[in-house]
Amino acid sequence: MKRVPYREMHDELVRVLRKLGFTSDKADLSARLFAEASRDGVYSHGLNRFPRFIEYIKKGYVKIDQEAVPVKQLGALEQWDGQLGPGNLNAWACMSRAIELAQNHGIGLVALRNTNHWMRGGAFGWQAAEAGMIGLCWTNTIPNMPAWGAKNPVFGNNPLIIGFPKPDGHIVLDTAMTQFSFGKIESYRRQGKLLPVAGGFDSTGEITRDPAEIEKSGRALPFGFWKGSGLSLMLDLLASSLSEGLATTQIGQQCDDEYGLSQVFIAIDGQGLGAKAHYEEMLENTLAAIRSAEPATPGEKAYYPGERTLATRTENERLGIPVDEAYWAEIKAM
User: Fold this and answer.
1) Read out DSSP for 103-118?
2) N or C: which end of the chain has fewer CB within 10 A?
3) 189, containing H or E segment
4) CA distance 152 to 154
């Protein structure tokens, strides 16, 4: 597979964004978030997602001259309107504000409405952790997952991110409510591979590992079956109510494309109460238990969320970032 240095990828994305009319600062941050996603191994929401981002700009769903603005405030809780600006830039701004609120109040929550796909949601968990904060954020989506026991999609896969700061490599969980994100399903389909475990239903209602069949049916499998389905609903209700934005059902009624989303960003100063010693001891004991666990497969080991990301980041910084050559050629031609 072709590998591209991080700086080359970043600069190529900046070139395209500047050509479309992004300011220098906005192009730099947006390109950085896309390139860092691919650098960290989240290819489906990095370079591979960029052409669709450009498509949505051209369709008018993403408005490059708009940005998130505050609307209401109640103590450490704020409500913002994304004005359909670029989703990754809106998300970065709202997590930045949540961090600022947490620095002043111990906790900060920003609920965002009327925004676009944030691309790699995990980026904002890492953002909080880099600032020394515990971070939580989630988004709703277009309907792409059935309620448990139903056939047609009515829930979103509503990714949830939790970031936990750790001096030598943060712990960051980035998970959709489906067994696989649709970006990952697309990636397996393009590679002509089956999913490693069942990821959805085919058009006859049978559980399958075939990514093409899942895309055709639009029925992704909730993780934990009914548990993932229920958690998806609750995240959607929280995001849409706190932001006074659209719920998943309403997003799906607009058209077949995904825009006008609702999101929540929370930052918590986990050591703000003076519990630094407890925090460090708890963290070390927990990770020691993971490290000492007997591996299920000889030669393997248990990992905490984000640990493999750090290893992938190191490898891709050294060797270059693997790219899907079709996507890379498409972007080079823009």
Assistant:
1) HHHSEEEEEEEEE---
2) N
3) helix 182-190
4) 6
The tens digit of pLDDT for each residue in 260-270 reads 999 999 999 98
Q: Give the SS3 label for residue 180.
A: coil
**Mind telling me the catalytic residues?**
45
Q: Does the pLDDT value for residue 173 go beyond 80?
A: yes
Are 282 and 289 within 8 A, CB to CB?
no
Burial string for 163-172 (b: 16+ CB within 10 Å, else e) reads: bbbbeeebbb
Domain count, the chain: 3
The conformation of residue 318, written as its DSSP 8-state character, comes to: H
Contact between 80 and 94 (Cβ < 8 Å): yes
Predicted model pTM: 0.94
- Dump the DSSP string for 81-100: E-TT--HHHHHHHHHHHHHH
Positions of E strands within the chain: 3-4, 69-74, 77-81, 107-115, 134-139, 145-146, 153-155, 160-164, 171-175, 200-201, 207-208, 261-268, 321-322
Domain span holding position 10: 1-59+303-334
Q: How far is the C-alpha of 184 from the C-alpha of 194, rounded, in Å?
A: 11
Residue 53 lies in a domain: yes
| Confidence at residue 205, expressed as pLDDT on a 0 to 100 scale | 87
Q: Please check whether residue 284 lies inside any domain of the structure.
A: no
Instruction: Give the single-character DSSP code of 47.
Output: G
Instruction: Say if residues 237 and 243 touch (Cβ distance below 8 Å).
Output: no
